[in-house]
Amino acid sequence: NDDDDDDDDDVVAASTKLILGVPWYGYRYACLDDETTHTQPDDRFCPIKQVPFRGVNCSDAAGGEVPYSQILQTYYAMTAQEKQRTGGMRRDDYQDASFFNTIVTAPMTTKHNNAHNPTTITTTA
Question: What whole-number distance in Å separates Cα of residue 46 and Cα of residue 108?
Answer without folding.
Answer: 15
